[in-house]
């Protein structure tokens, strides 16, 4: 077995991993104990990364050959790299001749390596001549970028992870760290255990797992963050908790802010934020008077039409109280993607140039042109993500080259995005995985290498650069992203730069990285002292200029900031309500966020059925009282509608939400959540509802807030079909179920972990206004192989009920392999629902005989329940059973009892927040008896 050190492919924590392989296939993964981001820990997603590289995934879900089609209605045609490159170059040049260079836009990804970013940027701006290159990092971190630049002068998070251990107060805003950045949350838990005096404040409308761990939870009204931060600053000024000496010596603009926040008293903010005034005052006191306050913030602040204002308002609390430039304190933005930071460094965004330069500055453009060896760069910034697709929908952008991202699922206002893709004359999709929503609109598919197959670098949230190493070669004809770009660029150069030396004379990724390094020299992010060889020894933080022995862990220790004056800047910011505000037609405030075990549009994490165990299907969460107000019951279907679109989804009660709030995970796109409206039009996923209104400073869209209406959906005919099949047949079954689900009024198609090795389960739930037709039902029966001899059958013609079952194995080993239920109510209720858990968990059915066709189980039958501990497959029902046995214990002792008996929470630790919640919510024996 071979071992290769690399990094995780998921969030911006930047965990180090050790990949195990046999030289051809990845066989395992574990945390790297020497990597300073995680010291060997991995979350549930990272610990299962090797499962995304299983041979059956490579065979069924990976894009392995270049493909082309002239018309989207035609089938894909495989091509050689040589043939597709030449064909693509000809098409691009024809578009350029007809419409000019700016008719081409690039939309790339924070999951690319820094070398890939550099290659795309140089192709777009340096060779092709278009400024229109933006990244999906626009959707996650651009407000943080502009907030840092406006306040501190540079896009440079000033803190390090080790500040968590040195802080005396943690202020977590707009981040469910426990789920979105689990390994950082392990550090927070450990810091609290080592220092019980550490105070934790969480600002979040929901009572998340992170909020439950806090000493103070500010459950503010969605969209009111600026009012809260201004009221805290008002209180700091009123009580004399600010640092006048620091403000006078190291900042500018404070007096204008002082005058502005005078009107935002805690009493007024309490009304705007729906918070007790005393909580706002206490938060201000802890923030200002703690010896060291570290703020951690993420999408709840950034994904907003006021995202930059929220970032600045928070940073100003640090500046006013002097909580910056010291160990344990400062404003620390947590990045969402593994290399969102590297993309910003390389200038791979419409509003950035390499080395934190500005495309609106002629001098900055001239510097980059000189570094690249070109005459000039396109003047000014390009179109940001939402603008790019708006321009395509308007016909201004004629072609889009998309890499390592799925805008047909992840961008807001899906109707507009899909109309834009349809209108484009050419859509190039460069990706590792096939079957994404965007692939449906592409003309060209370019197979890219992915995790475990690539060489290069990434930069995590604390400015730490790590080497990414390949453990195995890319499968099929897949190639590294930088290499794909290089090869096409080389074919373009003789026609666009005849007789001139190549801009892409690279034999490997290190040459591209060295060009990137040169763009940082003398800048705030100077990495002139780094090399691949030095990074082989250990990951390093920037800045790391020539002559230094190590990178700089913290910035602004001398309190000199990256502005022309050296002073940090206060800006007067006016609070304004979100673009949409609840109305009679749309009274609910919808937000979205991450699930603990899933990632983005599920193209990678969705290949691991076990990761669906904790949240096996899409559910719209509402407070229990809201369900009553809406006249809905747990698990019922409803139509959710906004000003932009609608979707069909089941509802669930969640007491962690406030009144009039709704929450739906961001991951559920049209590959999982399907349906058709009354007119028969296909519905998209969660982002069909989201706003495309953007922050005017950062261009980041308002993905965290939309007002929606809710109405019960009458689709009385319900079908559930499921089967475990050999891995080699999994994708065939998946595609068959998807095709059938697209014909239903509502459908959900998800993988289910099989209890037998070498198998995958798929479950389709579909609902119809009228009984499904015989042809549809026959197709489903055949897909599940329930038409073969030996299948058990129960039919009730009077009620229109049908049940088909197929068993596998004999005697004591017999288990339920496949089943279908028609006309029965939702799984978990009513006739035959008990079969679901037996199938999921592979329970033996020996001796049940005809009871398998009975409406209810004969005798006790514990229903299936969500998997809480992903590492060991421990379900909530098992945990609840153990907790009932230790009601006399304290919550802490209950948690220890769970860990000692069921061993849940003893591996990656990602489930600890949920275990803690369950242990605390179980009533004591005294409460039970009373």
From TrEMBL:
<dbReference type="Pfam" id="PF01568">
    <property type="entry name" value="Molydop_binding"/>
</dbReference>
<dbReference type="InterPro" id="IPR006963">
    <property type="entry name" value="Mopterin_OxRdtase_4Fe-4S_dom"/>
</dbReference>
<dbReference type="InterPro" id="IPR041854">
    <property type="entry name" value="BFD-like_2Fe2S-bd_dom_sf"/>
</dbReference>
<dbReference type="InterPro" id="IPR006656">
    <property type="entry name" value="Mopterin_OxRdtase"/>
</dbReference>
<keyword id="KW-0004">4Fe-4S</keyword>
<dbReference type="Pfam" id="PF00384">
    <property type="entry name" value="Molybdopterin"/>
</dbReference>
<dbReference type="InterPro" id="IPR050123">
    <property type="entry name" value="Prok_molybdopt-oxidoreductase"/>
</dbReference>
<keyword id="KW-0479">Metal-binding</keyword>
<keyword id="KW-0408">Iron</keyword>
<dbReference type="Pfam" id="PF04879">
    <property type="entry name" value="Molybdop_Fe4S4"/>
</dbReference>
<keyword id="KW-0411">Iron-sulfur</keyword>
<dbReference type="InterPro" id="IPR009010">
    <property type="entry name" value="Asp_de-COase-like_dom_sf"/>
</dbReference>
<protein>
    <submittedName>
        <fullName>Molybdopterin-dependent oxidoreductase</fullName>
    </submittedName>
</protein>
<keyword id="KW-0560">Oxidoreductase</keyword>
<dbReference type="InterPro" id="IPR006657">
    <property type="entry name" value="MoPterin_dinucl-bd_dom"/>
</dbReference>
<feature type="domain" description="4Fe-4S Mo/W bis-MGD-type">
    <location>
        <begin position="1"/>
        <end position="57"/>
    </location>
</feature>
């Amino acid at each position: 077995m071979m071992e290769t050190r690399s990094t995780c492919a998921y969030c911006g924590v930047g965990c180090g991993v050790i990949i195990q392989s046999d030289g051809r296939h990845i066989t395992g993964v574990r945390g790297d104990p020497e990597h300073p981001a995680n010291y060997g820990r991995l979350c549930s997603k990272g610990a299962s990364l090797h499962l995304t590289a299983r041979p059956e995934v490579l065979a069924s879900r990976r894009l392995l050959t270049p493909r082309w089609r002239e018309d989207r209605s035609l089938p894909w045609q495989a091509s050689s790299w040589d043939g597709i490159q030449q064909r693509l170059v000809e098409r691009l040049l024809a578009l350029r001749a007809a419409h000019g260079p700016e008719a081409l836009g690039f939309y790339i990804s924070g999951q690319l390596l820094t070398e890939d970013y550099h290659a795309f940027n140089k192709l777009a701006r340096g060779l092709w001549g278009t400024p229109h290159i933006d990244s999906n990092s626009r959707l996650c971190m651009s407000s943080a970028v502009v907030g840092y630049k406006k306040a501190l002068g540079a896009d440079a998070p000033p803190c390090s992870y080790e500040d968590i251990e040195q802080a005396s107060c943690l202020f977590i805003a707009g981040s469910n760290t426990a789920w979105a950045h689990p390994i950082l949350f392990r550090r927070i838990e450990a810091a609290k255990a080592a220092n019980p005096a550490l105070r934790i404040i969480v600002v979040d409308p929901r009572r998340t797992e992170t909020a439950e761990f806090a000493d103070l939870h500010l459950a503010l009204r969605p969209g009111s963050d600026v009012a809260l931060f201004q009221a805290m600053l008002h209180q700091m000024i009123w009580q004399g908790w600010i640092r006048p000496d620091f403000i006078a010596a190291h900042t500018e603009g404070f007096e204008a802010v002082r005058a502005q926040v005078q009107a935002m008293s805690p009493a007024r903010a309490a009304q705007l934020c729906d918070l007790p005034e005393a909580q706002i005052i206490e938060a201000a006191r802890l923030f200002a008077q703690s010896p060291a306050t570290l703020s951690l913030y993420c999408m709840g602040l950034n994904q907003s039409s006021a995202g930059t204002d929220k970032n600045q308002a928070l940073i100003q609390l640090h500046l006013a109280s002097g909580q910056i430039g010291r160990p344990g304190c400062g404003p620390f933005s947590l990045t969402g993607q593994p290399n969102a930071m590297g993309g910003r460094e390389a200038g791979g965004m419409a509003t950035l140039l390499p080395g934190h330069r500005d495309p609106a500055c002629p001098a900055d453009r001239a510097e980059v042109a000189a570094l690249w060896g070109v005459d000039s760069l396109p003047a000014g910034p390009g179109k940001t993500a939402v603008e790019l697709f708006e321009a395509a929908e308007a016909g201004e952008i004629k072609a889009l080259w998309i890499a390592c991202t799925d805008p047909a699922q992840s961008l807001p206002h899906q109707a507009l995005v899909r109309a834009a893709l349809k209108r484009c004359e050419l859509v190039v999709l460069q990706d590792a995985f096939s079957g994404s929503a965007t692939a449906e609109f592409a003309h060209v598919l370019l197979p890219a290498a992915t995790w475990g197959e690539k060489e290069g670098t990434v930069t995590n949230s604390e400015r730490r650069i790590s080497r990414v190493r390949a453990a195995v070669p890319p499968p099929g004809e897949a190639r590294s992203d930088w290499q794909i770009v290089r090869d096409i660029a080389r074919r373009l150069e003789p026609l666009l730069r005849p007789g001139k030396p190549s801009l892409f004379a690279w034999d490997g990724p290190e040459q591209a990285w060295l060009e990137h390094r040169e763009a940082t020299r003398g800048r705030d992010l100077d990495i002139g002292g780094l090399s691949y060889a030095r990074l082989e020894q250990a990951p390093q933080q920037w800045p790391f200029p020539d002559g230094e022995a190590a990178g700089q862990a913290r910035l602004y220790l001398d309190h000199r900031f990256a502005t022309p004056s050296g002073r940090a800047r206060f800006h007067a910011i006016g609070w304004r309500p979100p673009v949409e505000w609840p109305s009679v037609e749309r009274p609910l405030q919808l937000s979205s966020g991450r699930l603990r075990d899933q990632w983005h549009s599920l193209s990678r994490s969705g290949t691991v059925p076990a990761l669906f165990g904790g949240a096996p299907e899409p559910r719209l969460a509402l407070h229990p009282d809201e369900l009553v107000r809406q006249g809905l019951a747990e698990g019922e279907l409803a139509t959710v509608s906004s000003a932009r679109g609608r979707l069909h989804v089941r509802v669930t009660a969640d007491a962690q939400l406030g009144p009039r709030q709704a929450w739906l995970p961001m991951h559920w796109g049209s590959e999982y959540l399907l349906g058709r409206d009354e007119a028969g039009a296909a519905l998209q996923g969660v982002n069909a509802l989201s706003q495309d209104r953007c922050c005017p400073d950062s261009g980041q869209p308002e993905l965290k807030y939309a007002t929606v209406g809710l109405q019960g959906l009458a689709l009385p005919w319900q079908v559930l079909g499921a089967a475990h099949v050999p891995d080699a047949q999994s994708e065939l079954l998946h595609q068959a179920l998807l095709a059938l689900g697209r014909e239903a009024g509502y459908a959900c198609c998800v993988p289910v972990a099989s209890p037998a090795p070498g198998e995958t389960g798929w479950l389709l739930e579909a609902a119809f206004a009228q009984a499904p037709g015989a042809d549809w039902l026959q197709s489903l029966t055949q897909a599940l192989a329930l038409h073969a001899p030996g299948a058990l059958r129960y039919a009730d013609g009077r009620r229109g009920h049908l049940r088909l079952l197929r068993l596998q194995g004999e005697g004591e080993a017999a288990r339920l392999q496949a089943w279908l239920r028609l006309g029965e109510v939702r799984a978990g209720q009513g006739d035959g629902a008990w079969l679901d858990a037996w199938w999921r968990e592979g329970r033996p059915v020996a001796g049940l005989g005809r009871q398998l066709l009975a409406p209810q189980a004969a005798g006790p039958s514990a229903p299936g329940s969500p998997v809480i501990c992903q590492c060991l497959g421990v379900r909530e029902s098992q945990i609840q059973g153990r907790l009932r046995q230790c009601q006399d214990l304290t919550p802490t002792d209950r948690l220890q009892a769970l860990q000692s008996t069921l061993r849940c929470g003893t591996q990656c630790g990602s489930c600890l927040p949920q275990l803690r919640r369950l242990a605390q919510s179980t009533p004591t024996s005294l409460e039970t008896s009373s």
